[in-house]
TrEMBL record:
It holds the Pfam family FolB. Its EC number is 4.1.2.25. This is dihydroneopterin aldolase. Coiled coil: none annotated. Gene3D superfamilies: 3.30.1130.10. Pathway: Cofactor biosynthesis; tetrahydrofolate biosynthesis; 2-amino-4-hydroxy-6-hydroxymethyl-7,8-dihydropteridine diphosphate from 7,8-dihydroneopterin triphosphate: step 3/4. SUPFAM superfamilies: Tetrahydrobiopterin biosynthesis enzymes-like. Residues 6-117 form the Dihydroneopterin aldolase/epimerase domain. Belongs to the DHNA family. The lineage of its organism: Bacteria, Pseudomonadati, Pseudomonadota, Betaproteobacteria, Burkholderiales. One of its GO terms (cellular component) is cytoplasm. GO terms for molecular function: dihydroneopterin aldolase activity. It comes from the Bacteria. InterPro entries: Dihydroneopterin_aldolase (IPR006156), FolB_dom (IPR006157), GTP-CH-I_C/QueF (IPR043133).
Length: 123
């Protein structure tokens, strides 16, 4: 099976996330790096957006999931986002998500969580 990789680098999303008092009810930026290994359909027509996974749809799903409601932990957000992306996009065979909180600490660019997942292929 052939795959193609779609990636996002530092997608900025304002999200309601965190366990601290000052984080509740407020938005803070998240930076999201994501990679998607997408199944290539060999019978596809050349240069037709309907024959490939439109990365605009992936971006919309990421933003929607990250802005939907307050989440306490980055771990929870990563798990929810991973589950949604695998459920909504059957051509995604594997993914890597890295979500960073750039304002968490003054002495580093960001702190965050990274998750990877591979779709189980049934023969």
């Amino acid at each position: 099976m052939q795959t193609r990789r779609i990636f996002f680098s530092r997608l900025a999303v304002d999200s309601q996330i965190g366990i601290l008092d000052h984080e509740r009810g407020a938005r803070q930026p998240l930076h999201i790096d994501a990679e998607f290994d997408v199944k290539i359909h060999t019978s596809r027509k050349v240069d037709d957006i309907h024959e490939v996974l439109d990365y605009r749809r992936l971006r919309e799903a990421i933003i929607d999931e990250c802005t939907r409601a307050h989440v306490d932990l980055l771990e929870t957000l990563c798990d929810q986002l991973q589950a949604r992306l695998l459920a909504d996009f059957p051509d995604v065979m594997a993914l890597r998500l890295r979500i960073g909180k750039p304002l968490a600490f003054a002495d580093c660019a960001a702190v965050g969580i990274e998750v990877t997942a591979t779709r189980e292929v049934t023969a």
